[in-house]
Design brief:
- The protein is α/β, with parallel strands linked by helices.
- The strands form eight sheets. Strands 1, 2, 3, 4, 5, 6, 19, 20 and 23 form a nine-stranded mixed beta sheet that branches. The chain has a five-stranded parallel beta sheet with strand order 8-17-9-10-13.
């Protein structure tokens, strides 16, 4: 039986994180063989999946963009198509696209300490027999939510409704909402992005929310960035603006944590200033929680407020009693008519892509594992994953994690190590993985790993602390345990372990 194909690094996912991980690997660990397994048929991940009207970033592209590839477009808040092109262009220009295997969904990953290898099982589109590959290091960059399912509560009476119900995650390509009455259920980032765009063509749009979210307006174009780009080289201007936005974002987050009531008043006041005087801001835009207990939603150039002010959009804060033949009846007794209902009700979290992990034959329960440096799991060798920030751009953490993975691989190579395993101290206290009250987090808390009560087991929502931990702190910190190749390898196992050195992958 032929040996499975063997690689130095296997990356799962060809989205923003996976393409960035491959780029860092090429730059910092040249000569390493690698492949990217992507379950879908396109590059882009989230930014290829979501196609609803108005889809865009909810943070600026100077921090959402890669540190190694400056964002040079005028729009700081970019639409989904532009982001998808940015990711695709990055992959093409670096030759990363040649290493991507589309239609490969990773389902199992089995680690063997004897061979110091992962054996990966991937189901390929259109085939019944799974494909197997081996790798020295496994790097999971598959995002944080289920691509195949969304959070979609069942509402009473849906079967009676004569219109169409859609979820933004699965937006119908040819859905025509021109001159239609539309109800959008939800008040999160997707809803505030979708509604102003739909309102341009719909007869009327109702934003139906059970409770309000914090929203604030950001300009599409960063005026300071525009000036710096005229005066300075593009790369220098990019990094200055990136640092400026990073510092402002971190300052705002820390201020919200230390003075929540003051920040709450400021956010609500900014909304009041953008809406008509008679609008009930206290009811519709004053949340019951503190700022950054959930993500603050971005409204670009005040488009949502303008749509409300023009009468194209109404906001209703109430709970759904049931669907009716023509729309939705609320618990207050009000009945609203709609031709289309958009259920912008959220995501289902899926931290490690639904992969079944085993280590030397024993199953790994991610919910009982502890996270090391926000990038590895305790007791799981030679495996890292990307999970970005909840209070800042995802890519900031993805870049740091990719840099750390490269540091770790180089360190192991320089000392002849084959295995690196974070080993938790049994005396460590446990805390939830995320200190966040958004619905998608609360629903998944029991499935998420834990963070520890002290470093390096803490999960920081702080770029500067992570930069020190992942870029500067010692690799050999006494917690990460290293092993050299075991001398008890069988001939076939040894051949598999060495196979990566004699063959490069050209996908």
């Amino acid at each position: 039986m032929p040996l499975p194909e063997s690689l130095d690094v296997l990356i799962v996912g060809a989205g923003l994180s996976g393409i960035g991980a491959a780029a860092h690997l090429q730059r910092r660990c040249p000569g390493k063989s690698f492949a990217i397994l992507e379950a879908r048929d396109a590059i882009g991940g989230t930014w290829d999946l979501f196609r609803f009207p108005g889809v865009r970033s909810d943070s600026d592209m100077y921090t959402l963009g890669y540190s190694f590839r400056p964002w040079t477009h005028d729009r700081a808040i970019a639409d989904g198509l532009s982001i998808r092109r940015y990711i695709t262009d990055t992959a093409r220009e670096a030759g990363i696209d040649a290493h991507i295997r589309f239609g490969h969904k990773v389902t199992r990953a089995a680690w063997s300490s004897d061979t110091a290898l992962w054996t990966i099982e991937a189901h390929r589109s259109g085939t019944a027999v799974p494909e197997r590959l081996c790798c020295r290091f496994l790097y999971v960059c598959g995002g944080y939510f289920h691509y195949d399912s969304a959070y979609r509560p069942d509402f009473p009476g849906e079967q009676l409704y004569g219109g169409m119900i859609v979820h933004p995650q699965f937006w119908p390509e040819h859905l025509d909402y021109t001159d239609k009455r539309v109800i959008v259920i939800g008040s999160g980032a997707t809803a505030v992005t979708l509604i102003p765009e739909i309102a341009k063509r719909a007869a009327h749009v109702i934003m139906l929310q059970r409770s309000p979210s914090y929203v604030f307006s950001l300009p599409t174009v960063d005026a300071i960035a525009q000036r710096l780009r005229r005066w300075l080289p593009a790369r220098m201007a990019f990094h200055l603006v990136r640092m400026k936005n990073l510092i402002i974002g971190m300052f705002f987050f820390q201020l919200a944590r230390s003075r929540p009531e003051w920040v709450k008043k400021r956010l609500v006041r900014m909304v009041e200033d953008r809406l008509p005087p008679q609008f009930d801001v206290e009811r519709h835009f004053t949340p019951r929680y503190n700022p950054w207990d959930q993500r603050v939603c971005v409204v670009t150039d005040g488009d949502l407020f303008e749509a409300i002010g023009s009468g194209a959009v109404s906001v209703v804060t109430d709970e759904i009693e049931a669907f009716t033949a023509g729309g939705i009846r609320l618990k207050s007794g009000t009945e609203m008519q709609a031709d289309i209902v958009v259920a912008a009700t959220g995501l289902n979290l899926n931290l490690l892509g639904g992969i079944e992990f085993t280590v030397d034959g024993a199953g790994v329960a991610a919910s009982r594992a502890m996270v090391y440096k926000g990038a590895m799991l305790g007791g799981v060798p030679n495996m890292a994953f990307t999970f970005g920030y909840t209070n800042a751009s995802w890519t900031l953490k993805a870049d740091l994690t990719a840099g750390y993975v490269c540091r770790l691989i180089r360190y192991m190579d320089s000392r002849g190590y084959a295995i690196a395993t974070p080993r938790p101290d049994p005396s460590l206290g446990e805390d939830p993985f995320l200190d966040f009250t958004s619905g998608y987090v609360i629903r998944a808390l029991e499935m998420l790993p834990k963070q520890g009560s002290r470093r390096p087991w803490k999960v920081y929502q702080n770029y500067f602390l992570d930069a020190f931990t992942l870029r500067l702190a010692r690799i050999d910190d006494g917690v990460l345990q290293f092993e050299r190749p075991r001398s008890t390898l069988s001939r076939s196992a040894a051949a598999a372990a060495l196979f990566h050195s004699s063959r490069r992958l050209d996908a």
